[in-house]
Known about the structure:
Chain A has helices at 2-36, 42-45, 54-82, and strands at 48-49, 52-53. Chain A is mainly alpha-helical.
Amino acid sequence: MHSTTSVCLDRIEKIMKKAVYSVLVILPLVLILAGIAGLLPDRVTNTSVGGVPLPIMLILGLLAWSVMLAWVYLLYEDRGEDR
Amino acid sequence: MTIPILIFIVIVAVTLGITYWAANRSSGRSNLYTAGGQISPLQNGLAITGDFVSAAAILGSVALFFSAGIDAAIFYVSPLVGLGLLLIFVVKPLRECGKYTVGDVLSVKLPGRSIRVYMAICTIVLSEFYMVAQLVGAGHLFSIVFNVSYEIAVAVVAILIMIYVAFGGMLATTWVQIVKATLLIFGVALLGGLAVIKSGGLGELLSAAEQAYGGSLGAFGGSGLSLFAAASLSVAIVLGMMGMPHLLIRFLTVKNPAAARKSVVITAVLVALVLGTLLLIVGPATLAYVKGEAAFQTSAGGIQGGRNMILLHLSTALGGEVLFGVMTAVTFSTILAVVAGLTIAIASSASYDIYATITGNTESTDERFELKIFRGAVILFVAVAAILSVALQDQNIAYLSAFAFGIAASTNFPILILALYWSRLTKRGALAGGSAGLLSALLLLVVGPTIWVELLGNDAPLFPTDYSTLISTPIAFVFAYLFSVSGKSSAALANSEIDN
């Protein structure tokens, strides 16, 4: 019984991990599609920071976000295998 | 034109040298198909970067930024989303089950010949389609630089590809891709650096670009895509990458799943650097230095050589003939490397998944005849792609490429992901799902704006956009589900699930 519960919990953890990472990975695309759908306020699309349009800065940040997520996932997976 | 020709010849000589070196090390099935699994994560990361950032991706996305502004971000962000999802869902089980081809993965989950042969046919069809798109680009580029006819240009490119793959196999293909990816990263960095220096700073460059564009660079909506079309295009790129065989077999060239995961992260870093530079600097630089310049315009007001040439015009504007030569050679090597990777995927599917499976020789140590089939398949399928690329020479490259990704997202991706994660998938369900995805993608393409209106001359399209993946992929999943649960053999999976 104890072992069955442990297997179930392990499985739930794996599913949750994949679900959370998937949502975080897809976020950048959601922002771009929101922009194309006209859902971003003009305040955002017309603002520049140091000459760089804010949406371009946001997209660059999202590219960095994707890389960071991949890196974190790698560390997490490798640590899991070490255990 | 002498400098570009010299640079071209150097690139071709280097890649042929790599092929000669690799040919002495590519004797058996394992070496020819997957480089013996001895590619390091860094080398594989560079090679996958080369596959991701294809000529269509660079030339097409820069051209889209030129005309549609920040809407082009779909092409910059989607590859990284695809990489993230590949890392989470596909890489580890693929490396654990796969030996030489994507068909290996399915045969572990769905034993038997039919599904493996079916997957091989899907792989051949969609890779051939993508290869035609790349060859069209290569033919135009080669004919411009060498001033020869398009047909001769395609023939020369096809012969080069045949030599790389038939003699050097995966090892040569991987090293050609590594050389190309390194050149590409160097070329994009050089273009970006020169653009910023010439403008006197990044702020000045963006300001000049905004002036030429005639509006805010941060304003979305320039492409005219509806939300459905944009979402469908994004999904095609993201899921298509997860079903593209020439990308997937790269994970079989490293020694274990951990190395495969590392190569994905290295790819993510490199792809983000290249795409970030294209978005922040190179895209705006095309507006600042190419838009409105008489030297790059036709008498009718269009771009000389078509919109796909915009990046190369920027090279001329920033560095004259030398930089034009460098960037043209980089673009050409990009196409060669991607087509070589596609040819490996096609030929190994033909020789291993079809020939060896049908004759029952997948585990045989006598590989001589199978390798002859591999080399024969290389010649046959590259020749067919060359003939098709002559017939389709006036078609839009980005359109042909997007279509190949849409097919991959509607056929290979659903079957692969269900085989990996759903224990009740049956052969019947996989065949029905893949076929339904393929047919719906083809049907919706035919009744979309490009074929139904532009080619067939009808007044209005029956389906409003050319991008139908949001519909065709779910259809594939639904059919796979229905035919699996309704079949009598739903317990057919002996190896029901991989623990991920």
